[in-house]
From TrEMBL:
Residues in AB hydrolase-1 domain copies: 71-158
Alphabetical list of Gene3D superfamilies matching this protein: alpha/beta hydrolase
Positions in coiled-coil regions: none
Family (UniProt): Belongs to the AB hydrolase superfamily. MetX family.
Pfam families: Abhydrolase_1
Lineage, opening ranks: Eukaryota, Fungi, Fungi incertae sedis, Mucoromycota, Mortierellomycotina
Name the UniProt record assigns to this protein: AB hydrolase-1 domain-containing protein
């Protein structure tokens, strides 16, 4: 059963006992979401990202009196922002109990998230027309997934600073993030930290923030003292504490690990529609907790499945990487564009902000560039 929201604008859609791609059941599952605008208008789906929440994480790109935008305008569109599993708003380790609650909550893939969002739109909100879907980071992964998983329903897709498949390099980075928490054995308590100590594993969460510190922004951002200029934080150690540790220690450790698993396993070819003989559609053949030790991972069969999944996208796609993104470089986005074909366009965000160029709106110039680009893309394709 979904909790009572602290923000009355947040709604919940009950999925009941929801069958996952793994074959496991997520009991009494639900999606948290918020809508903007009238349901009589064309629908834009805008999923959340790793650790991001609905309002604080996504509302910066939606037009409000505080920050007017041209693209995501509730006067013209019906905008739906669903929270991914594990973010603390939708079904998550932090808000579930029982045999499949907390650290024992079944792992969820991006495929599972998109399947649940599709149910929300079609059964919960009655959306039957084609939609546009967009997102930053893990939200971009969901945009790619939507366009491949439901190719006839997606008219336009705009993934920015994200990927259709988690790269080997990105997977390695995430291993360090995961290790930051798990090596705090005294604080993490095998995932039962609240039951045994009544608090989060602070040492592990601080370490997680420090791992992130070298990745979220570019080398140029640090060299040009971006934190001092844009955030008023002087000195690298203060950046570590006042920006990164402040962020990471505000999170729930099991939630972060759950979403991390989802991110590591991101791969639009790992679904029955495209997997074919690669074995990627089988739960025990996808990237597991043993990582890339899966026999055949990165094989020619896997790459063929990835090509099929991207080629299966019928939507017009605007892919927007940042030239200084350390997670999702433009070279990977170029491969995605080439595999999709003529219905894909690559537009690079040129910014020293790195991954943060795509969100959550701290870079005003990049936010304007995204807004203008999405607005023009929608207009070009009659949406």
């Amino acid at each position: 059963m979904a909790p009572q929201p602290k923000d009355p604008s947040i709604k919940y859609y009950q999925l009941d006992d929801f069958e996952l791609q793994s074959g496991e059941i997520l009991p009494s599952a639900y999606i948290a979401y918020k809508t903007y605008g009238s349901p009589t208008n064309p629908c834009i789906l805008y999923p959340t990202w790793y650790s991001g929440t609905i309002v604080a994480g996504n509302e910066w790109l939606i037009s409000t009196p505080e920050h007017p935008r041209r693209a995501l305008d509730p006067e013209r569109y019906f905008i739906v922002v669903p929270a991914i599993f594990g973010n603390g708003e939708s079904t998550s380790p932090s808000n579930t109990t029982g045999p499949k609650g907390g650290v024992n909550m079944p792992k969820t893939s991006i495929y599972d998230n998109v399947k649940a969002q599709h149910q929300l739109l079609t059964q919960g909100l009655g959306i039957t027309d084609q939609i546009a879907v967009l997102g930053w980071s893990m939200g971009a992964g969901q945009a790619f997934q939507w366009a491949s998983q439901y190719p006839d329903m997606v008219k336009l897709a705009v993934p920015f600073c994200g990927s259709a498949r988690t790269s080997f390099h990105n997977w390695v980075f995430l291993e360090a993030v995961k290790g930051a928490i798990l090596t705090d054995t005294e604080g993490y308590c095998g995932g039962r930290y609240m039951e045994e100590k009544g608090q989060q594993p602070i040492v592990g969460l601080k370490a997680l923030g420090r791992v992130y510190a070298g990745w979220g922004f570019s080398q140029t951002f640090y060299r040009e003292k971006g934190f001092e200029k844009y955030y008023g934080i002087h000195g690298v150690e203060r950046v570590m504490v006042e920006f990164w540790e402040k962020w990471s220690t505000s999170k729930d450790a099991n939630n972060m690990l759950h979403m991390l698993w989802t991110w590591q396993h991101g791969d639009i070819s790992a679904q029955p529609l495209y997997a074919d003989d690669s074995g990627l559609a089988e739960a025990d053949r996808r990237l597991s907790d043993r990582g890339l030790g899966r026999p055949g991972a990165g094989s020619e069969q896997d790459e063929d499945a990835f090509k099929r999944a991207l080629k299966g996208i019928k939507a017009e796609v605007l892919i927007m990487p940042c030239n200084n993104d350390l997670y999702f470089p433009p070279e990977d986005s170029q491969i995605e564009k080439d595999y999709i074909g003529d219905n894909a366009e690559l537009k690079v965000i040129k910014s020293i902000w790195g991954h943060w160029a795509g969100g959550p709106g701290d870079s005003k110039n990049d936010a304007k560039f995204l807004d203008d680009s999405i607005y023009t893309f929608f207009k070009q394709h009659g949406f």
